[in-house]
Design goal:
With 528 residues, the protein is an alpha+beta fold. The protein folds into four domains: 3-32 and 252-299, Nucleotidyltransferase, domain 5; 41-239, Nucleic acid-binding proteins (OB fold (Dihydrolipoamide Acetyltransferase, E2P), Beta Barrel); 307-425, Aminopeptidase, CATH 3.40.630; 443-524, Hypothetical Protein Ychn, Chain: A. Helices cover 30% and strands 24% of the residues. It is built from 14 helices and 25 strands. α9 (342-364) packs parallel to α10 and α12 packs across α13 (472-481). The longest helix has 24 residues, at 205-228.
Length: 528
Amino acid sequence: MKREILINATARETRVAILEDDVLVELMVDRPDAARMVGDVYKGRVEAVLPGIQAAFVDIGTEKAAFLHVSDVALEDDDEAEDEEAGGDEAAADEGDGDGASGGNGGGGRRSRKYPPIQDILKKGQDLVVQVSKEPISTKGPRVTAHISLPGRFLVYMPGSSHVGVSRKIEDREERARLRALAKEILPEKSGGIIVRTVGEELTRETFQRDLQTLMGTWAQIKKKANKSRGPTAIHREAKLTAGIIRDLFSQKVDSLTVDTKIAFDEIRAYLEQVDPSLVERVHLYDDPKPLFDAYDLEREIRDAFQRRVNLPSGGYIIVEPTEALVSIDVNTGRYTGKKDPEKTILKTNVDAAREIARQLRLRDVGGIIVCDFIDMESKANREKVLQELRQCLSRDRARTKAFQVSELGLIEMTRQRVRPSLYHTQTAACPTCAGTGRIFTPETVVRRIERAIRRAAAEGKERQLTVRVHPEVALFVLEQEPRFLRTLEGSLKMTLAMRDDPLLHPDEIKLMATATQQDVSQRFNLG
């Protein structure tokens, strides 16, 4: 498979696009006003200990206190630790080998183990060094772990552990055994634990030693700064987006990396000359006047990532609906009707949809619970084909995913690791007209609301002359469909009423004005 990385950098925004066989599969955006937090290390102060949920809230200087579960502070049994990658934003979330996120946070197996009561471990007001494992999402603050892990190019160093492991993505048994033995030789006794990362495959002792020494030096600096600092304060920042991408993703499996700024190009080459000179020739500077993403026709694909509807090659389509609790995905045949066999038509659409769903989850960086409503199939074998296609495509995802068997309702339920807000939440805001519902009241519904409000005003008896201000579309509806609306109300309620259109109002917004004073009296007459 052909893999490319494109980096578009400006003073206020850096965008990284990952392409597989010339198709956009991932987009990462970094802006100064929305800096990434995952992997950052803080000296925090315990704000509250909650025995009822075996968790604590830690003040790390962010708007909302960070959440710390007992599983992320209690000492681990290293014999039970799995061979996984952990660490910073890309190392954990995007490599997909980490147990939840940085520091191995939140895995199902960890939650099922027995831990000492959190009130025996932490006390209110206690200072604690923690690492962000999940960014603030929606109304929740960040999630943190006391199990620090520092990602390097080839290793992840865990100063509070003694575990030595190898990434699960390195599947060759002999190579795994060699790397594990080499890692145990390199690691000084009682100095922490390490995990060999996926890009560490087939590398030498000298390279490993250099990476480990750098990481141990970083940890020494973190400890020194923590001892001198008073919480809450940041004591170590994870690598910025471009540096993290080069460290975590750019390997022999990537055919090329193209960047459109000379400064970033020089920095990337200088870094690779130190850690992996064989990759230097794969880095290219794009200096054409035409914007880089336009040259690859990516802007249209990026815009489509915010649409509900995604068309499939077969003519079918999927509808992606994010909600607070989960993301629902519906599959439809659309204009694709096949030839004679309806089961084959449905299978073709569902298989196309499975591929596109896996791509959209990566592109939109959707996390949490996802429910996919594929078109019903009678054949159990065909249902299994669709599930296997979905799982196969999800295997390319660097975030951890799990797709369950087709349910009795014909749904495939799945989960995807969530470390940061999705592209949808970071790049868009709720519509001021519909307040995020995606719907507005029809003109007829608005007119009925106006009628109820006027009747309330008549019952109160204080206002006998009212002017109703509405959107032009509503005024046109009254003119065409209910021309006697106001006159009828005037006769029955003994009031003087007028209607004015106001293009500055939202389509379903109403304002009731006292005609004499032109004072807005809407709030007095519940417009529901």
